[in-house]
């Protein structure tokens, strides 16, 4: 069992545990945060049962609790996951301390605080034809953008998504980048001359979003640290990824060069900044998570002899934070079975990939130790990642009297048959516990970024608006998660400072941001 720190124990003794997380939450009337994000109502099919063979179930011989009104597993889990305001203040302070340590020296803290060399942000004056390439999964996306300056802004844009054959994901660097360059050449060849115009004598320039761990050495160069997300391309570790793409394009006669190497968080910040000059933070909350922000160069000791004037974007890689997190035995077990045990612990608590899996693991133990779900444990309930975050959202959005949608989700995805209303209520409580912890911890991270910016700029205290650009399916499609995250900003910043913060949902702007950074870092 997890041994909690003395600090966590002291906080937890202050908690009063309720048996239900379904009560309406009191809204803060004086809150003046500006949130621009959609509310999504899930579409759920009808709830029907069909007979299942008993071979799909495991009969439990262990002694179970015979009272459905008591669920000690859930009660303890709720206690271990509690995130009261004083505790979140400690988390925000710890993240901020790690940020400072990472800015002082590489490896100084959990957060890598990577220099992106993005020292010029979009102003709205950019003109010309630029491109963006986004490589970060089983598909890559290419986009062309015709910019018309401050008056016309984005004149025309075209994009295409291309699937990468699995054999190239585990092949050679020449094969992978050769495939990408070939598709890029085909994309350019289909351009309509009336919509896209390249000035005579100029080379095409592209912003390359490469969402894998990279040690960046300049705005247009970086070496691969390691492959993730199912990629294992040989001959790439330690190589300049930009050089690999440039060579492949040149070999195929494509007159194009990479002007900016960025990740999706930096692209989101830059794309949002193009439309709103008060954007200072970019956060991705989707399957994974990351954050970047605008930092003053004089506050970065590890820049050493480099220019100390002006601003730059720092890629925090905040998913690697690991201090004073409310770890439970279920988090520990999930981490041990993950592809990167002991790493990215913050990400495993707040990002979309893991929330459903944590719920499944707790639900399995609830099913094994009580008769809340009957006398059988479905085999599917023991299958890792059988429950996804989108399922949690459907469960929490269920407003039917008998929680019919909850029963449907449990049956369709975990083969839990004929659950009674009491059991469904406990499942809703469990989902709320996991999502509340994740959203509130994410909120503490956002506060840490805002307070680091405030430390050097005094933006909020002087009444200046500060915008956080948010992207990712988790933030977009999970309203309860958004609410929990947003509430923490008021709790930790106070009403006055929080009133100067705007959180904007900026969907799919990272491609535009990459093209804009190619423009701001053009060789012409």
From TrEMBL:
It is an enzyme of class 2 (transferase). Its EC number is 2.7.1.-. Pathway: Carbohydrate degradation; glycolysis; D-glyceraldehyde 3-phosphate and glycerone phosphate from D-glucose: step 1/4; Carbohydrate metabolism; hexose metabolism. Residues 281-519 form the Hexokinase C-terminal domain. One of its GO terms (biological process) is intracellular glucose homeostasis. InterPro entries: ATPase_NBD, Hexokinase, Hexokinase_BS, Hexokinase_C, Hexokinase_N. Pfam families: Hexokinase_1 (PF00349), Hexokinase_2 (PF03727). Keywords: ATP-binding, Glycolysis, Kinase, Nucleotide-binding, Transferase. One of its GO terms (molecular function) is glucokinase activity. Gene3D superfamilies: 3.30.420.40, 3.40.367.20. Residues 74-274 form the Hexokinase N-terminal domain. GO terms for cellular component: cytosol; mitochondrion. It comes from the Eukaryota. Belongs to the hexokinase family. This is Phosphotransferase.
């Amino acid at each position: 069992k997890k041994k909690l720190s003395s600090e966590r124990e002291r906080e937890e003794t202050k908690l009063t545990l309720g048996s239900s997380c379904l009560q309406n939450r009191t809204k803060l009337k004086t809150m003046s945060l500006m949130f621009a994000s959609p509310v999504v109502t899930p579409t759920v099919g009808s709830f029907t049962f069909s007979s299942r063979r008993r071979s799909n179930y495991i009969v439990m011989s262990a002694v179970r609790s015979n009272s459905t009104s008591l669920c000690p597993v859930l009660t303890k889990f709720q206690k271990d996951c509690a995130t009261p305001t004083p505790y979140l203040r400690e988390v925000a302070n710890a993240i901020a301390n790690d940020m400072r340590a990472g800015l002082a020296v590489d490896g100084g803290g959990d957060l890598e605080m990577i220099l992106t060399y993005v020292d010029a942000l979009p102003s709205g004056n950019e003109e010309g034809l630029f491109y963006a390439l986004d490589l970060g999964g089983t598909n890559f996306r290419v986009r062309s953008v015709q910019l018309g300056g401050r008056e016309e802004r984005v004149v025309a844009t075209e994009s295409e998504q291309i699937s990468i054959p699995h054999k190239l994901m585990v092949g050679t660097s020449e094969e992978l980048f050769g495939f990408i360059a070939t598709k890029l050449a085909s994309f350019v060849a289909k351009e309509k001359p009336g919509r896209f115009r390249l000035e005579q004598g100029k080379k095409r320039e592209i912003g390359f979003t490469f969402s894998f761990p990279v040690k960046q050495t300049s705005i247009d160069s970086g070496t691969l640290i390691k492959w993730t997300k199912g990629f294992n391309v040989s001959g790439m570790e330690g190589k300049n990824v930009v050089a690999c793409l440039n060579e492949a394009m040149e070999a195929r006669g494509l007159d194009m060069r990479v002007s900016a190497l960025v990740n999706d968080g930096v692209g989101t910040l830059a794309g949002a900044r193009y439309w709103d000059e008060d954007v200072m933070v970019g956060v991705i909350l989707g399957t994974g998570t990351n954050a970047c922000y605008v930092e003053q160069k004089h506050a970065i000791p590890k820049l050493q002899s480099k220019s100390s004037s002006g601003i730059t974007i720092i890629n925090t890689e905040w998913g690697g934070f690991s201090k004073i997190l409310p770890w439970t035995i279920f988090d520990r077990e999930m981490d041990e079975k993950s592809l990167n045990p002991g790493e990215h612990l913050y990400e495993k608590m707040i990002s979309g990939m893991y929330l459903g899996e944590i719920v499944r693991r707790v639900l399995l133990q609830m099913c094994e130790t009580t008769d809340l779900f009957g006398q059988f444990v479905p085999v599917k309930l023991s299958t890792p990642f059988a429950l996804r975050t989108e399922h949690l959202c459907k469960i929490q959005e269920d407003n039917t009297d008998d929680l019919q949608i909850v029963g449907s989700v449990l049956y369709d995805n975990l083969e839990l048959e004929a659950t009674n209303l009491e059991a469904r209520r406990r499942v809703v409580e469990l989902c709320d516990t996991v999502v509340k912890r994740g959203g509130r911890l994410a909120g503490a991270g956002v506060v840490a970024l805002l307070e680091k910016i405030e430390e050097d700029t005094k933006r909020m205290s002087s009444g200046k608006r500060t915008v956080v650009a948010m992207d990712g399916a988790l933030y977009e499609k999970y309203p309860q998660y958004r609410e929990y995250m947003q509430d923490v900003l008021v709790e930790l910043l106070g009403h006055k400072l929080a009133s100067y913060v705007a959180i904007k949902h900026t969907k799919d702007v990272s491609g535009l941001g990459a093209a804009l950074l190619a423009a701001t870092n053009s060789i012409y």
